[in-house]
Amino acid sequence: MKLNKYTVDDINFSGKRVLCRCDFNVPLKDGVITNDNRITAALDTIKKILADGGKLILCSHLGKPKNGPEEKFSLAPVAVRLSELLGKEVVFANDDEVVGENAKKAVAEMKDGDVVLLQNTRFRKEETKNLEPFKSELASLADCFVMDAFGSSHRAHCSTVGVTEHIKETAVGYLMQKEIDYLGNAVEAPVRPFVAILGGAKVADKLNVISNLLDKCDTLIIGGGMSYTFAKALGKEVGTSLVDDTKLDYCLEMIEKAKSLGKELLLPVDAVCTKDFPDPIDAPVETEVFATGEIPADIMGLDIGPKTAELYANAVKNAKTVVWNGPMGVSENACFANGTISVAKALAETDATTIIGGGDSAAAVINLGFADKMSHISTGGGASLEYLEGKVLPGIAAIGDK
User: Fold this and answer.
1) Which terminus in the chain has less CB density within 10 A, N or C?
2) What's the sign of the alpha-carbon dihedral 154, 158, 162, 164?
């Protein structure tokens, strides 16, 4: 897993046409970018290529256009924001076919240090299936390829993998390198004690992660909706809490695996409960705390309780490495956010290397104002999960080894 890929520091891009796959999948409201974190995260790589005197051709997807080109998924607002951040013009090649007349003309006219942004790669049906002719059309624009979209690296698409069939000089950008360093080291060579915290609703989503992390970590903490499947597997009363009855045996296997490996597996001892799932999701509701195993038949647990929060906070105090993926409860609702907040606070206060695995836990840490207290917040939810499972990500595998 310790990867040794060519990085942007290994290449002098002077005079070269560089196709750089970024993650500009930013939230838009009425054509206005509401959060530009993903754009600012790409700036270090962009500036390195431009400082070398490279001709930079940027590409990304945005959203999930179903039927080809749709105006609401255009990358035009990204070009505007990038121009502002770089203090120079970013030429937007607005072709529905992505590599069309505008793109070809813009690239042909580039001088060293110029920037062109292509239209949404998913405007082409071939993109998500990694098919010709799109991958060779994309590749035809450039002399070298830089992959800096970790959030898309678990997908074998034309713009993440396919282009490398036609472009031989490849490298990862700074963002990718940071993800590989933090996530890879955490799983393969962690400073111990190593504590992993897994939350989220479904056991099924985290099956391989649970098993893989039990092999690697010293303590595994389970929270969120999937903890009720573990509780039920142990014969405890969970009321109407979310349970996956097809995974009860698996949960027992994991409990046994932890015992046989001498690992600590922590499960909730109490839960914040309510009668009906809040509708809308952030609506205030009446809550009550019950011990896990004593939840009444018509009541559901939607967050870890205060005793569990304290137990989990204490478990990370002496850790040297902590990986956290998935919230402890329905954290979109203030009534059920305390478990997630308490874990975030505990991580903020520890001296450990703290790695937040994208998605909901990353959003929680950022929204709660703890982002600057974490060692690394992953930019990819699904990608970071697959990485923690021990999978080889196609977007990383496609880049040349040193």
Assistant:
1) C
2) negative
